[in-house]
Amino acid sequence: MRKIAALGLVMILIFNILSLTACRAPGEEGEYTYRTYTSALGNNWNPHTWETSADRAVMEYLTTPLVSILPLDSLEGSYQWSFDMAKRVTDVTAGARGDLTKYNVKLGTGVSVNDVDKGYVFEIELREGLMFENGNEITADDFIESMKLLLDPRMKNNRANLYVTGESALAGASAYFGGNVSFESVGCYKTGELSFRYVTESYLDYNYFLASLTSHWLVDTEIYNKGLISSGELVSTDYGTSVATTSSFGPYRIESHQGEKELVLVRNERWYGWQKDDNGDIFSYTSCEVDGELKEQYMTTKVVISVMDSATAKQSFLRGELSEWAPSASEYNTYRYSDGLYRTNETYTMSLFFNSNKDALLSMDRSKGNVNSVVLSSDSFRRGMSLAIDRDEFALATEGYRPQYALLNDMYYYDIYDDPTSRYRDTPEAKAALCRLYGLSYGDGATYKTLDDAYRSITGYDIGGAEAEFKRAFEELTESGLYRAGEEIKIRVAWAKGALSADDNQQVALLERHINLALSDSGFGKLTLVPVARVSNRYAAVPNGEFAMGYGAWGGAAFYPFRNLLVYMDPEYENLNEAACWSPETETFTLTVDGVERTMTYQAWARSLTGSGEFSARDARTKLAICTALEESFLSRFYRIPLVSSSTSVLLSYQIENYTDAYSVMYGFGGFRLLKYHYDDRAWSEYVRDAGGRLKYE
Amino acid sequence: MRKYILKRVALLLFTFFIIVTVSFVLIRMLPRELPSDKALADIMLDRWEALGYGKPILVQYLIYLKGIVTAWDFGTSWYVEFRAPVWDLLIERLPPTITVNLFALLISIPIGILLGVLASLKRGKPTDLIISLGVMIFVSVPSYVYAFVVQYVLGYELGWFPLTVYPLSIAGGWLTPKMLYSMFPAILALSFGEVAGLARFTRAEMCEALEAEHMVFSRAKGLRRSYAIRHHALRNALVPILPTIVASVIGVMAGSVIIEEIFSIPGVGQLYIRAINLGDYDVFMMNTVFYTFLGLLSGLAVDLSYGFIDPRIRVGEA
After folding, report:
1. CA A126 to CA A194: how far, in whole Å?
2. How far apart, in whole angstroms, are the C-alpha atoms of residue A10 and residue A3?
3. Coil, helix or strand at residue A251
4. Contact A258 B167 (CB under 8 A)
5. CB atoms < 10 A from the CB of A557, how many?
6. CATH of region B94-309
7. Chain B touched by A603 (CB under 8 Å)
8. Are A241 and B262 inside 8 Å of each other by CB?
9. Domain spanning A45-240, CATH architecture
10. Is B124 left (phi over 0), alpha (psi -120 to 50) or beta?
């Protein structure tokens, strides 16, 4: 007994001693450490195989793009191209027409090689003095060899898709990646020790080409090849998975890495951008003037990425141990007036989407727990749902949500590089499309005087219209024997990939209330929506006949909105959300372009705006007109009901500050590159200590 | 006894094989999530095909068994740690799990037994009531609740300990003073339930032992109460307690999934969660094999330990 008690006391004593000996060291003078967190640490920062945003986050510290974007005048929101690893990028198509034939480039309809003088062959000249962290020089050969490895058919690298498909696809890459031809037929070749050419598969505007160079494919081929092994028939490399297999060519290099725990990056002294002062300290300035002067960049001396959950991260942040923390939507209100809070609207629009196929719905009524979900086969019913939902109130259920009425929200730009203010949603074409969709008229004798007045008044909510649509749907469905008056309607909704939150339940309750209000005198019984959580792929589950209805978001490609139509209209491009509703490959749409009436399938129209499509090389205004017409036509079918779009928030510690408070869709708030520090680590430790170890950001 | 042990080991191996086979089939039958971008989805499908995931499950299983038998190869992780052999991954994740759980056990065993003995000796008195109440609370409330409370109070409010376990870059190793210091909140959170469980068990066994006839006889024989308690009551009470401790010692390798998540301990529990979330089949399978083996081993150890602890008990020889 005594021994047991003694052992217990010894254990307690040990921990007391440990707690005294293991106090944390204060920060160092002249050091600027950026401490961030993640729920899962990146473990694959190979540019050819990275998978998650955590992988990409690590990769961005270790690499420098050929070209990037910097603010020109942050107050105006104007931007400029910053040539980083590239010294110059030139469109040399006119002088290299032979490449178009050699690499089998896809020319637009009716265009011959001799007509072409831009948009296909680009020469990239590299800066002198580029090197990997091990001191190996970077030359054009490295870029060519890296591309060859990326597209190696034996490796099936997932990031090859960036160069095999899409607007900036490399000529010949698809065939080589498919294992059909040699690398000689790929349009990426060396023209000098520090210069190489990139031939695009189809026309690409110069600015969009530069934008494609903001991500890269360069690897240290020596380390890459050393790590090659075969698993089954797959050849893979362990490049970019540990300190030993990583070779940085960016401003930082990995100092230490502990899987699923922590990654520490320090300055890579071999990065071309660093300069040394008289004391041997390194620093860097932007290569072009930002707001009229060269600005210090990459002020951070060390980056620490730690693994922790969000609740722990909040405590850590409030104790001054993290540089940033992302409050959830429900916590946003607490910190909304904080100087350190930066909020960004997202391109993602959350919508209800349906399986409107009658047979599939009847089958789900029999076997999937739905009751009378067949009502969704009625266009009038779905239109009634859309008009019954008060999006303003729905958006209020979750902090940071904004009501939305279209596929593409106000974060899209149709001609961003020539006109950074070219907001898609602000164009007369896009406004008029939505006014027509929601039945708002303007002009002489109409309800609204101008288009802008009408557009501003759109709420998507029209209870009278909804009631009329539901009555119409009731008549259609009862006449066809699909529905009997007064019967209940119960629909399981593929709602979330994860668990349901309180916000989710509130949103469902609101939807039910709104729709039932308009349904009350229509002859239909009560509608019940049953949200289903943990549906791994909602976008496939609905068209596959697992669910009659889904709720989910779609967004991205903010600078080329025309590409988004493929998601809805090209089943060969995306796992189509609405595949069960219609056949865009066969259904046609007529539109007048350049005064000529054209009829094509929806799929063909969507494709015409991208890649080597007929209209892809046309001016932005023409593409805009086609895009808005297609968007309106699609939305008028009510296969998808847009509801809200989301935003993200991040709270920065008092130690740091973003370069600008004026958000730009091109460069955000200036990014990590231009981050400013108010305190070095030593001063920050003292600041936190003086504040009692807990900081207030409310 | 030897025959019995051999029989139990053979049964263990057979059960293990059945569970592993069923797990393999079920895990490989899980649907894989593909990106909605068809070009990317095609590449992913090609990768899986090249890795042999398209072959019949029986063929896959035979390849899997062959890999284990001939090269101790349990497969490769493609998501948790890109291209890492899963066995290496498991071994890498064991030290933090064992450290935290072992220390929790070392704290729990003496305290738990001590409290149990104390409660039994003060049966019905305020001390017993207080201990029993504490035991009820700590047994009923799940350990992650204490974990949140411990983290908040010791790490955030008082600032005595870090909120999460130190990385190796700071601590310098798994058994350094710095590491043990940073692990203290996690160890404490794990200990509460263990202490309560042991205290409850010890109290019950001690109460029974204290009321046994041999105890009355011991006192009547003229032995001091403390001597009789130590040498007769406690020794008898420990017979059923020790096997559970043996099982717990083996169980230290299993880890605690939620505690590891909260305190950011890169252990096997966290590995299991990551493997499931990311659909990393080989890691998921490795963890399943590992947990199955531990479960069976601890069951066997408990059974056999009875015979070793108390020679009067002869298992399987009725």
Report:
1. 5
2. 10
3. coil
4. yes
5. 16
6. 1.10.3720.10
7. no
8. no
9. Alpha-Beta Complex (3.90)
10. left
Residues of A in contact with B36 (CB under 8 A): 537, 539-540, 574-575
- Three-class DSSP category at B83: coil
Angle, CA B138 vertex, CA B136 and CA B144 arms, to 5°: 145
- Among the listed residues A390, A593, A587, A621, the one whose alpha carbon sits nearest the alpha carbon of residue A507: A390
Torsion of CA A353, A357, A363, A368, to 10 degrees: 0
Is the distance from CB of A14 to CB of A281 less than 8 angstroms?
no
Report which secondary-structure segment, H or E, holds A8: helix A2-21
Question: How far apart are alpha carbons A362 and A373 in whole angstroms?
Answer: 7
Q: Who's near A349: CB < 8 A, 6+ residues apart?
A: A404, A406, A407, A408, A409, A553, A554, A555, A642, A643, A644, A645
Q: Is B33 on the interface with A (CB under 8 A)?
A: yes
Domain residue ranges of chain A, discontinuous segments joined by +: 45-240, 346-645
> Token pair of A347, please?
């391109």
**Short-list A492, A488, A524, CA closest to A378:** A524
Burial class (CB in 10 A: 0-12, 13-18, 19+), B132: middle
What fold characterizes domain A346-645? Dipeptide-binding Protein; domain 3 (3.10.105)
SS3 A192: strand
Q: Which two tokens stand for residue B156?
A: 């955030």
Contact A430, A628 (CB under 8 A): yes
Please tell me if residue B46 touches chain A, with a CB cutoff of 8 Å: yes
Q: How far is CA B9 from CA A395, B288, B297, in A?
A: 62, 19, 9
Cβ pair A1:B117 closer than 8 A: yes
Q: Is B161 on the interface with A (CB under 8 A)?
A: yes
Same fold flag, A45-240 and A346-645: no
Alpha helices in chain B (DSSP H): 2-29, 38-50, 57-71, 86-121, 126-140, 143-150, 168-171, 177-210, 213-220, 225-228, 235-251, 257-262, 268-278, 281-309
Q: What are the residues whose beta carbons fall under 8 Å from the beta carbon of B174, sequence distance 6 or more?
A: B95, B96, B99, B168
CA distance B300 to A671: 58
User: How far is residue B83's CA from residue A474's CA, in Å, rounded to a whole number?
Assistant: 58
Element of type H or E holding A628: helix A620-635
- Residues on chain B touching A17 (C-beta within 8 angstroms): 177
Residue A689: Cβ within 10 Å count: 11
Interchain proximity B43–A158, CB inside 8 Å = yes
Tens place of pLDDT for every residue, chain B, 318 residues?
Answer: 788 888 889 999 999 999 999 999 999 888 777 887 788 888 889 988 888 888 999 999 999 999 999 999 999 999 999 999 999 999 999 999 999 999 999 999 999 999 999 999 999 999 999 999 999 998 888 888 889 999 999 999 999 999 999 999 999 999 999 999 999 999 999 899 889 999 999 999 999 988 888 888 888 888 888 888 888 888 888 888 888 888 777 777 776 888 999 999 999 999 998 898 888 999 999 999 998 998 898 888 888 877 777 766 665 544
Residues making up chain B, counted from first to last: 318
DSSP assignment of A551-597: EEEE---TT-GGGGHHHHH-TTTB--TTTTT--TTT-EEEEEETTEE
Instruction: Evaluate whether A566 touches A554 at the Cβ level (below 8 Å).
Output: no
For residue B168, which residues of chain A lie inside 8 Å, CB to CB? 256, 258, 261
Please, what's the b/e burial string for A316-355 (b: 16 or more CB within 10 A of its CB; e: otherwise)? bbbbbbbbbbebebebbeeeeebebbbeebbbbbbbbbbb
- Half-sphere exposure of residue A395: CA atoms within 13 angstroms, side-chain side: 20
Residue boundaries of the structural domains of chain B:
2-87, 94-309
Listed by number, the residues of chain A in 317-356 with a beta carbon closer than 8 Å to a beta carbon of chain B are: 318-319, 321
